[in-house]
Amino acid sequence: MNGIGELLIECIQAFPLTFEKYKSDKNTAKNKLRKPMKEIAKKLQNQTRLRAFLNKSLFNNGEVDYLTVKHNELFHIFYYKDVIKTMSEKLEVCNSKAISAGQTPEQKVLFRYKGNNLGELEMRNDSPVHYREIRFNMIKPKAMVFLFENIPLTKKYSDLVLIYGDANKKFGRW
Q: Are 130 and 137 in contact (CB under 8 A)?
């Protein structure tokens, strides 16, 4: 992905080896994290790189064919290529900002749609169990609105399963 992997390693290495050392001087680690997070955001503003990142992080480079989400007691199935294409074309990538005193900017890479955070790439540093870990997550209600707005419903597979976009051409053909 043209240097993203190396930048992710740099993000991990911005933090001391132990959680105890981090707790004693959080600001040093947070300030070291700013540079690679800014570089990741800049790289992911390129559609080709964003497409590659989404393909790897969500679908393990095409090893997974569908994004299936249980939402409002129904299963919604999207074809991976539709998700990658739509997200890479419509999401804005930027860094987080310090909103209040004591916060450090550029701690996350945000994935935004119409001014709302849809997802984020961040370092986990909240406990000894979850320390020096990278987390990429989506905010489900906002992600579902995005998917529903941008990938059309194409088939009702059953009372519980709805198919979107090109998934109708592939789903159920095993």
A: no
